[in-house]
Amino acid sequence: MGRRRRGRGDRDRPSGPGVGFNFFDTAHEYGFGTAERILGTALRHDLDHARDEVLIATKGGLRETDDGPVRDARPEWLRHDVDTSLAALGLDRIDLYQVHWPDPAVPAAETAGALADLVATGKIRHVGVSN
User: Is 30 a known active-site residue?
Assistant: First the structure.
C-alpha cells in the first residue's frame, strides 16, 4: 500500500496512488481556491515524488463578483485563472484544464486561442469544457 497520512480522528489513510487511483478533478470555483489548496496539500508527497503518475484536472473561467460567480472566458482572465490554480495546487502544470461553463459573451475562438497558448507555454497539457 502507498504512503500513509494521518486523517481525522487520528486514523491512517493511504494517499491516492497508493490505493490505485491517480486522477483528481477539482475546480478553482470550489471555494475559490480552497479545494485546490486542500488537494495540493493532500497529494504533496505524490506530486513531489511521482508527478507523472498523478493526473490533476481543474476548471476555471468563472469570476467571483459581489453578486456571485459570473462566466468569464476572456483570454486575460483564463491566463490569470490558470496561474491562480497552479499556485493553489502547488504545481508547474495542470494535466487537464476545463472551462467550467462556456461564456456566451466571448467568442469560442478567443477562448480556444487562449487555451492553445497556455498549452504551448506548458502550463496546461490538455483542454476541455466541463458543462
Answer: yes
